[in-house]
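Schema walkthrough. Field components (list of strings):
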Amino acid sequence: MATQVVMPKLSPTMEEGQLSRWLKKEGDKVSMGEPLAEIDTDKATMEMQSLANGVLLKILVNEGESAPLGDPIAIVGAEGEDISDLIGGKKSAKEETPKAKPKTEEAEEKEPEPKKAEAAASKPAPKEEEPRPVTTQSRDDGRQLISPIAARMAAEAGINLKSLHGSGPGGRIVKRDVEDAISGKIERIPTAPRLRAVPLRPLEKGEVYAPSAYRDEPASEMRRTIAKRLVTSLGPVPHFFLTTEIDMERAADLRRAINELYPDAKISINDVIIKVAAAALIQHPQVNASFQEKHIRYYEHADIGVAVATENGLITPVVRSADLKSLPEIGAEIRELADRARARKLRPEEYTGATFSISNLGMFGVDEFTAVINPPEGAILAIGAMAPKPVVRDDQIVVRHIMRVTMSCDHRVIDGATGAQFLQTFKQVMENPLYLFLAQ
Amino acid sequence: MAEITMRDALTQALREELARDEAVFLMGEEVAEYQGAYKVTRGLLDEFGPKRIIDTPITELGFAGLGIGAAMAGLRPIVEFMTFNFSILATDQIINSAAKMLYMSGGQFKIPIVFRGPGGSAYQVSSQHSQALESWYAYFPGLKVVMPSTPADAKGLLKSAIRDDDPVIFIEQERMYGMKGEVPEDEDFTIPLGVAEVKREGTDATIVARSLMVPVALKAAEELEKDGVSCEVIDPRTIRPLDIDTIIASVKKTNRVVIAEESHPFCGVGAEISAQIAEHAFDYLDAPVKRVSGVDVPMPYAKNLEQLALPDFEKLIQAVREVSYL
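Field assembly_structure (string):
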C-alpha cells in the first residue's frame, strides 16, 4: 500500500526541514533503510532514510523547498498504484506553480487538510508560539517509538533506549535493534549513535566514546528553593560569572614541547584548555552537573562541548570523555569535528549532550567575555585571547603571557564558592600543567 | 488411514453419528432425494430412511425453528443450510431461540442442534452468495462456531458438534469440499471443540488462519521459509469457544502476528483475536497485529475483481514481511 513519506524530526530542536537534495527520482525503486533525500535541519544536513519498500511514486516537496515536521514530502508505494487519495488533491511538486512562496505562507496553506483539522479540533487549542497544531503522526511529538517486546527486552538487559537506533517504521525500536545492541552489533554500525555504558577505566584508542554516564541525586528542598528564587530574578537559567587571569607560560611550553616531540600532533592551546577543564571537572563533580528540576544530575565523565563558529552560526560539537583522552587525541578529534561542523555534516548525537562547554574567542582578539550557558549544562567557560602583559611577580613588573577566562555558572546547581573552587583548580592546572600527569 | 475428500469426510461423520445415536436426524433443502446440493448427504436417505433424512420446503426460518423445537423435545437435529448465505433468513430462530433457550429457561432446555452447510466465497456466485458469516454467529453467547480446514478436522469436529449439547454453527468452505486428506476411519475419532491446532511450527511470525485460509497460510509459510522467516500457522478450528491460549503462547514465542481471514475486516473474528492479543500479550508484540481480510466491499461477480477481493498468498506474504520489518 502506498504511504506518505513525511518530514522527519532529525534534530531535537527542528521544526521544519529544507529539502537539500533528492537522492532518488520519481519512479526509482527504494527499499527500507535506503537514503532517500538530504534534509537541511536547523543544525546540519542529514540523510533521510526510506521507511518502506516500493517505488518513489511522487515527490511533493522540491529541492530547496521547506516543509514543517510531519508534512508529506513524497509518496512511496507499488508501481502504478493509485495515490490520488494520498496526495489529497495536491499536485506533484513538479506540476506546482514555480513561483516561490514565503515558507510560512506555504506551511499555512497546508493546514486546512481535513484530517489534520479534525485532529487539531479535538485537541486543546495550540499555544500562540506553537508553529502549527499537533499532527496525528506520533513520531512528530518527539516520542521514541518502541515495540512492546523491544521495550521489555531492553529493560531486562538494562539497555538505555536512548542509546538505540530504531530500524522500524518511523524509527520504531524493534526487537532486532535490541538484539543487535545486546550482541554488541550496533557498535559496529558507524551511523548508530555512539552510546553505551561507560567503563570506569581509561578507554583504549579506537574505542567508541559514549556520552558520560551519570547519577541523579534528589535536589534538596533548599537547593530547589535557591533555584526557584534565582530564576525569578534572572531568566530561566540564572547565570553568574567568575573571572580569573591565568599565566599561560607553562601551558604554552607544554604545548611547544609536545609539538616538538610529535610534530603531527599539532596541539593547540585550546586542546590543552579542554584537557585541563576536563581534569578539573573530574575533581569538582559539583560543576560537572546539570539541574533537572527534581534532581541534580552528576556526570561521571567530562563531555566537553566546544563552540565552533560556522557560516550558519554557532554549533558545539562534543568531545566525549575528554578526561580519558590524551592531548593528541583531543586535538585530532576537535579538528575533525570542527571540519564537519563547518560542512554541516555533524550528526545530532555529535553536538548534543555535553556536560560542560568551552567557548574561545581568543583568536578574534577578545580579551574577555561572558558566554551564555547551553542548557541543561551547568557551566560554560569563556576564553579570551592569550597575550603578553605586564604583571607583578615577586614585586617586579614582568611580562607574561596572560589569558583571562570567565566562567558562567547556572546558580541553580553551582554556588559561587563551588564555581570558584573549580576555577581555582582550572587556573592551578593551567599554570602548572604537570598536574595533568599527577592527577590521572 | 484413507485419503478422502472433505465432502466424504463430512458424509462419514454424519453416517457414523446417525448410526450411533437414534436421536440424531438430518433435515434441509434437497438433503434426501437429491442427496444434497453439494452431495454431502449422499446415500444417507437409502441408509437411514425418510424419517431421519428429511427434505424441507424452502423455508429457512421454519425448519430452523422446527429443529430447535425437536432439540427441546430431546432429539439431536442436524440442519443443513444449502449455504450459510440462506441462514440469514433463519437468524431469528438461531439467535433468539437456539442461542438463548438454555439461559432463558434457567437450564431446563438444552439445544443439541447443529446448523451446518457451506460458507465463505465460492466461484463467481457474487455478493449475496459469497459471505463469511462466522463473526455474526460468534458474536452471540450461547452459540458455538466451528470451521474446519482439513478433511480430518471436518470429520472429527462435526462428530463432536453433533454430540455437543449446545447449538453449534458448523461452517464448511464451499471451495474445500473437494480437498483431499488422510482421515481416521475409527468411529470414535473426534476432535474436541475449542482446541486450536498448530498446523506448522515456527519462530518468527504467527499466522492465525481458519478454514480456506489455512492451506493459503501453509503455502505462504513455505515460501517465507526460503527467505529465512519461520512462520507458525495456527488454526483455531473452533471460533467460539476460542482457544486464545494457544494463540497467545505462539505470540509470546514469535512476537509478530498476521491474521488471515476471508471475512470482511470490520468487527470480524480477526478483530476479536487482535484485541485479545493486545490484552493478553501486549508486552510481547514487536509489531502491530496485522489482518489480511477480504476487502470491505460486497463480493464482486467479475472473476478478476473476485480475486482482488479475497485474501491470497501474495497479500499474506507481504503482511508477514511487514510485521517482520523486512
